[in-house]
Each structure stands twice: as structure tokens, then as C-alpha cells.
Design goal:
This is PepSY domain-containing protein. By secondary structure, this protein is of the alpha+beta class. Helix content is 26%, strand content 28%. The chain has one domain (25-98). It has a 5-stranded mixed sheet with strand order 1-5-4-3-2, covered by helices on one side.
Length: 100
């Protein structure tokens, strides 16, 4: 009986502590990825403007400019690829898209 009491106390302490763990923020973008269908994912985006610019450049774009994070957490701006100026977007998953 005496060995059950410490076990019960341990469970009473551990269960509320587990319930208090919050949602994890989105992981940092690790690799460049281009999506051709023009869709981006909405979500909390912890990427800085400098990181967004570098990630878009790694995806093959140059002269990245006018980057702004919109209300959906998507970085949007202008860039050049293959000599053409295009609209680009970067979501929290690291997807780079072209178009509006």
C-alpha cells in the first residue's frame, strides 16, 4: 500500500503538466521547394524577411523585392526567374509559388 501512494502522487503531478504543453511553432524551413500549382498554405510563419528572401533565392529566383508578410502568414513579393518578373509567395512549409 505504501508503494502505491508515491505512484499515485507521481501521476497526479505528471498528468496536469502534460496537459499544459502548448502547440509547437512551425519548424524552420530547411530546403528550397517550388510549387507550380500556385497554392500556398496559410499558417503561422516565424520566418523573417531576410530568411524568406534567402529561401526564395535558393529556389532559383533573383532580384527578390517588395516582400511583405500578409494576414495569412504568407510572404509575398516580386522576383525574377528566367528573365521574367513574377509575383512570388512563400508559406510556412517552405513552398515557393508564382502568381498572385
Amino acid at each position: 500500500m505504501k508503494s502505491i501512494i508515491p505512484l499515485c502522487l507521481g501521476l497526479l503531478i505528471a498528468v496536469p503538466a502534460q496537459a499544459q504543453t502548448g502547440a509547437k511553432p512551425n519548424a524552420a524551413i530547411k530546403t528550397a521547394h517550388t510549387v507550380d500549382d500556385g497554392t500556398v498554405s496559410r499558417g503561422a510563419n516565424s520566418v523573417t524577411e531576410k530568411q524568406a528572401r534567402a529561401h526564395i533565392a535558393k529556389s532559383g529566383y533573383t532580384q527578390v523585392s517588395r516582400l511583405k508578410k500578409d494576414k495569412d502568414g504568407v510572404w509575398r513579393g516580386m522576383a525574377q526567374k528566367d528573365g521574367a518578373t513574377v509575383h512570388v509567395g512563400l508559406d510556412f512549409k517552405g513552398n515557393v509559388t508564382t502568381g498572385e
